[in-house]
Automatic annotation (TrEMBL), chain A:
This is 39S ribosomal protein L20, mitochondrial. Pfam families: Ribosomal_L20. It comes from Macrostomum lignano. It comes from the Eukaryota. One of its GO terms (molecular function) is structural constituent of ribosome. Belongs to the bacterial ribosomal protein bL20 family. The keyword rRNA-binding does not apply. GO terms for cellular component: ribonucleoprotein complex; ribosome. PANTHER family: 39S RIBOSOMAL PROTEIN L20 (PTHR10986). Signal peptide: none annotated. Keywords: Ribonucleoprotein, Ribosomal protein. One of its GO terms (biological process) is translation.
From TrEMBL, chain B:
The keyword Cell cycle does not apply. SMART domains: L51_S25_CI-B8. Its main location: mitochondrion. This is Large ribosomal subunit protein mL43. The keyword Ribosomal protein applies. Keywords: Mitochondrion, Ribonucleoprotein, Ribosomal protein. Coiled coil: none annotated. Belongs to the mitochondrion-specific ribosomal protein mL43 family.
Length: 163, 173
């Protein structure tokens, strides 16, 4: 029942509220507020669209993470390509050197701090050249003084070698 | 749908509070509790331990009220400079939790709690300068047009006419 304004003041106990169809329909219509056409106004159409919208919301949670990861990969790849290494090599190389930067931060650096990103690519190139791996189409990196530390980075396990 | 129904906002403070000067946005805090019921035990202990007075003395800019209400669950009501009122249900909370809620309200701005686009916000996100194709010299986007790698989806008018000509001369011969 939809009460008129003077009667709206009366407080309906929740046990009766649940039995009244108005309240359930109103709930669906609240969710369908910004939908297109009659799906936003008529309950029988809104119910279907709202249920489908909830399904989409649930399904998109996993997909959103994947898509963001793809976007980050694309951006890192493009930024690395300018410096002559593949994006995967950067992520792998940083991991091997125990530089803990995830994809999200790397793409932020590539956009907002391009010189820092370049120094990271130089580091990765240096690491690979010390191992004897030459990245394809790469320019020689800016001189990076490593003192052999790239090959055995300080990680919790080998800290005793540096004390 | 979730983005429409529950819009996201960027981090912001009312009138850029904190940039040059910080003003506590909490103006009044009221602790409503019952003197007898067990779910108000934490609230009563909070008062009796002296934590409420400690909060009131440490924050002279906040008006602190106690409101004993018979047979009602305990509630914390915080009123802010922008006029908003926030309620925290402290039903059966230990005294330590009540204390934490007090200090949490003290730090809030009174804006609605909405999902954020990002947990950080900066008007100057770049220190070194945002990347442009010219940042590392003109090494990106170089090339001459037409490029053989760019294959058009449909044949151009010239190519259509050339095809027609080839068909025609094949038919003639």
């Amino acid at each position: 029942m939809h009460l008129t304004c003077p009667l709206w003041v009366r407080r309906i106990p929740k046990i009766y509220r649940n039995n009244d169809p108005f309240y359930l329909r109103n709930l669906y219509l609240q969710f369908s507020f910004l939908f297109r056409g009659r799906s936003s106004r008529c309950f029988r159409l809104a119910e279907q669209r709202v249920i489908k919208a909830f399904q989409h919301m649930n399904a998109m949670r996993a997909v959103r993470k994947d898509r963001f990861k793809q976007l980050c990969d694309e951006r890192i790849d493009a930024a690395c390509a300018q410096h002559g290494i593949p994006g995967k090599m950067l992520i792998d190389g940083l991991g091997r050197m125990n530089i803990q930067l995830n994809r999200k931060m790397l793409q932020q650096l590539a956009i907002y701090e391009p010189y820092s990103f370049k120094s990271l690519t130089d580091l990765v190139k240096q690491y690979h050249s010390e191992l004897g791996i030459v990245p394809p189409n790469a320019e020689p990196p800016a001189p990076v003084v490593t003192r052999g530390l790239l090959q055995s980075p300080i990680v919790p396990g080998n800290r005793k070698f540096y004390e | 749908m979730s983005r429409q129904m529950l819009p996201r906002v960027f981090l912001s403070q009312p009138l850029q509070n904190g940039v040059s000067r910080y003003t506590c946005q909490l103006k009044r805090i009221t602790l409503k509790f019952c003197k007898f019921r067990p779910n108000s035990l934490g609230a009563r202990e909070f008062i009796e331990n002296g934590d409420f007075l400690e909060f009131a003395r440490a924050n002279p800019q906040v008006a602190c009220y106690l409101k004993p209400r018979r047979n009602r669950p305990p509630v914390l009501q915080a009123e802010f400079a922008n006029g908003s009122v926030q309620l925290a249900r402290i039903d059966s909370f230990p005294a330590e939790f009540v204390r934490r809620w007090f200090w949490l309200m003290r730090g809030r701005s009174g804006d609605d709690l909405l999902p954020l686009h990002e947990n950080l916000r900066s008007f100057h996100p770049s220190v070194q300068g945002v990347w442009t194709p010219f940042t590392f010299g003109r090494s990106v986007g170089l090339g001459d047009l037409p490029d053989s790698r760019h294959r058009p989806m449909s044949p151009s008018a010239t190519e259509l006419i050339q095809q027609l000509h080839r068909l025609q001369s094949a038919r003639m011969s």
